[in-house]
Amino acid sequence: MAGLDLAPGVDPAQALKALETMLGDLEKVKPLNYRHSLFTRWKQIVQQALSKFLGPEHPQTVAFSQLVFHGPMPKSPMDPPVSDKDKAAYDAAMTKTAEILYGIQLALKQPVIDAPPALGEAPSPDLPAPPPPAPAAPAPPPEAPGKIVFNAADTVGRFAQSAPPPPPAAGNELRSTHDFERHAGPVPAGGIKIVSRSGTSTPTSTLEQMIDATEDPQQKALLVSIKDAVDAPDGTWLAVKNALAELWWANRDAVSKLLPLILRR
Fold first, then answer.
1. Are 248 and 202 spatial neighbours (Cβ–Cβ below 8 Å)?
2. Three-state SS for 210?
3. Among residues 19, 59, 183, 224, which one has the fewest Cβ atoms lying within 10 Å of its Cβ?
4. Phi and psi of 213, rounded to 5°?
5. Torsion-angle region of 92 (φ positive above 0: left; ψ -120 to 50: alpha; else: beta)
6. How far is CA 24 from CA 15, 20, 49, 152, 154, in A?
7. Residue 237 DSSP SS3
8. How many CB atoms are located within 10 Å of the residue 145 CB?
9. Cα separation of 68 and 96, whole Å?
10. CA–CA distance, 90 with 7 (Å, rounded to integer)
């Protein structure tokens, strides 16, 4: 019940009916005094009812048992059996009894109100289930072993992101895997110089033309090794990448011109 805890197993309707009977009898004993037998019997009934419906340790039961319905007891046979002090104490105790009983009656008549949900536990509205996640894109088919498959965007991106090898130590001669004696000679200050046999500059559209137009012997050897790695039936990207790394340290501009030629083969 809202605002009142009844003893275990007590029927609220039965408790309310008994309480209304006690309130009706209260109006009958109110004009009496503490010596009257009707009051004495009524007081016992109220005490027993409160202990039964609320429990003997309930605050309302204890408060009623502590009420005093009389004044100082007579000290001699000459004192009146009911003094003015007795009447005042009786009236005060009956007023307090009426407050206790009417308060219990009000609590029993209040409707039961469900406790509000705890903070942060408010029921959420029904929402539609989220759509299932989109299926993952199928993995690309594996590359055949021993075959070089060039993809322009992927190849350039991987080459640009990979860290170049450390530069050769001072005094070490830069040589390719195809280093012929006829290609020996210093690297010119200008790097790769692409010049036609007639002496005028000409564009190179193939790897072979770029090799023929390169005058520096060491860089020409690097271009030859790159061409061999690309054309080899069992060639791998690692071999091409290593050769490109050597050429990167010798002439970076040549690498930028060489990559499109490799990807077109």
1. no
2. helix
3. 59
4. -85, -5
5. alpha
6. 14, 6, 14, 102, 98
7. helix
8. 7
9. 10
10. 29
Q: Which residues contact 188 (CB under 8 A, 6 or more apart)?
A: 215, 216
pLDDT under 70 in the chain at which residues? Answer: 1-3, 111-130, 140-204, 235, 265
Q: What are the Cα distances from residue 172, in Å, to 165, 167, 219, 223, 224?
A: 15, 10, 16, 20, 21
Burial of 146 (0-12, 13-18, 19+ CB in 10 A): exposed
Q: What's the pLDDT score for residue 148?
A: 45
Amino acid found at 163: A
- Concatenate the DSSP letters of all residues of 106-140 into one string: HHHHSPP-PPPPPTT-PPPPP-PPPPPPPPPPPPP
pTM > 0.85: no
- Locate 248 and state its tokens: 């990167």
- Could you tell me which of 156, 188, 187, 194 has the C-alpha nearest to residue 172? 187
The two tokens of residue 222 are 């690097």
Of residues 73, 64, 70, 63, the one with CA closest to residue 90: 70
